[in-house]
Amino acid sequence: MRPAQVELPSPPNDAISAIKFAPTSLQLLVASWDRNVYLYDTSKSGWSLLQTYQHRAPVLDVCFGEDDQNAYTTGLDWDVRHLNLSTGDQKVLSSHTAGVKSLVYSSQHHILISASWDSTLHIHHLSSPSRSPASVALPSKPFSISLTATKLVVAMASRALHIYDLASLASSSSSLPHITDPQSGIAMPISVEPWQRRESSLKFMTRAVACMPNDAGYASSSIEGRVAVEWFDPSTESQARKYAFKCHRQANEQGIDVVYPVNALAFHPVHGTFASGGGDGFVALWDGVAKRRIRQYQRYASSVGAVAFSGDGKFLAVAISPGFEDGREGVGEGVVKVFIRELGENEAKGKGMK
Fold it and tell me: Which one of 76, 221, 252, 321 is CB 3.0 to 4.6 Å from 57, fit for a cystine?
């Protein structure tokens, strides 16, 4: 009998920064601070490490591209790379001037978007590999990005949040002239007006943002144990629906709530519910429409750093590694792990769904 949860073998040696399922299979990419990207087979016949891809610096994000053989990585070496998972070949697509925190791929527009702490987005038009990526200026440092079929959400410092229309962003970044700095050879940032500018509903620093699969809105989380749910529709009626709630807080021995950061968010691709992972070591499933928690899983041995659903929604990947919430430094033996949970038919369904 297949267990409900499986621990993957040969985990990374340092903290995990990101995990992503392949679009059409159960292959899983794991990015780590140990300067490696790991490719796992998480199918019923697998549960094995297929390959490890070494990088020059800690890897902060990873994503699949147009198929299961093409991936993209980025991190503290400032580079955005294409990674051929079959051959292991790596190619630098662009270089920022600071660490690159996030990376997303749009299959609808065949563009790759990277967000760097140099306060820029790089828009890579993958169908025109000879064309230099466009650099789009941001008002502040980006912490997390997420996209739908039509929108890109960029959560930044100072509680700033930009929502871009993807078609407009792709068109503008392709048509506007690219000016290169003569000394560094790096593209100068261009100005692209976002579809909406917003201020985060959360009072403290944003840790993660994730878009709804139905293209209706997004959820964001903060370092102060809260999650906000908002909708794209700018109408007064729609904006009145937005809300925020407390979560990932645990009472200590004195009965006082200890507040943990909500490190990770991921929406279920079928049911539209979402998972949150916190520094308290818990993963919870939420019905954002009904404003209810569906369930909370058992506590993991260390902080939950990343969560991801498989493309068919039947599996949930959970990555744990020290978040240093307890003040201890260093990564101890056996505290960095990746778990794959097989979800029951109704396990991730909202309370009002049939």
Answer: 76
Whole-number Cα distances in Å, 211 to 75, 104, 138, 284: 22, 12, 20, 17
The per-residue pLDDT for 115 is 98
Q: What value does the mean pLDDT take over residues 216-232?
A: 97
What is residue 325's DSSP assignment?
Answer: T
Q: What's the pLDDT at 9?
A: 95
Please give the model's pTM, rounded to 2 decimal places: 0.93
Whether the Cβ atoms of residue 80 and residue 125 lie closer than 8 Å to each other: no
Whether the pLDDT of residue 140 is over 70: the answer is yes
323 contacts 25 by C-beta, under 8 angstroms? no
Distance linking the first and last C-alpha atoms of the chain: 28
At 325 the pLDDT is 55
Q: With cut-offs at 50, 70 and 90, classify the pLDDT of residue 184.
A: low
Length of the chain measured in residues: 354
Query: Could you read off the pLDDT of 291-333 as tens digits, one per residue?
Result: 999 999 999 999 999 999 999 999 999 999 987 555 555 555 5
Q: What percent of the chain has pLDDT over 90?
A: 81
Q: What is the pLDDT of residue 354?
A: 44
**Angstrom distance (rounded) from CA 39 to CA 29:** 5
